[in-house]
Design goal:
With 122 residues, the protein is mainly beta. It is built from no helices and eleven strands. A hairpin with a 4-residue loop joins strand 7 and strand 8.
């Protein structure tokens, strides 16, 4: 069982930056692929970024070059650095974990956090 707690969301102006954190419980964090997803009002939840247990990263085209996912296995934490934020990045951001390998699809992830709100004003 893995519990995930996101933090770092908030209100920021367009062009600004935020760093989201996701703290995970458990002693086998290093064995999990981690992902960030987001859901805007009236829209489906979508993949944002992912990082494998070995540190390989992958991104949605909409955030490539602006967002960076990273992990610190010693702290059981995954981060999402978000730069050059746009109003369309406004959403609830969710952290997710999958034992072993996972990709860009929600069904690949077994554990989910409660989400943190990100609002980007124009």
């Amino acid at each position: 069982q893995v519990q995930l707690v996101e933090s770092g969301g908030g209100l920021v102006q367009a062009g600004g930056s935020l760093r989201l954190s996701c703290a995970a419980s458990g002693r086998t964090f290093g064995h999990y692929a981690m992902g960030w997803f987001r859901q805007a009002p009236g829209k489906e939840r979508e993949f944002v970024a992912g990082i494998s247990w070995s540190g390989n990263t992958y991104y949605a085209d909409s955030v490539k070059g602006r967002f960076t996912i990273s992990r610190d296995n010693a702290k059981n934490t995954v981060y999402l650095q978000m730069n050059s934020l746009k109003p369309e990045d406004s959403a609830v951001y969710y952290c997710a974990a999958a034992f072993g390998v996972a990709g860009i699809h929600q069904h690949e992830y077994k554990y989910w956090g409660q989400g943190t709100q990100v609002t980007v004003s124009s």
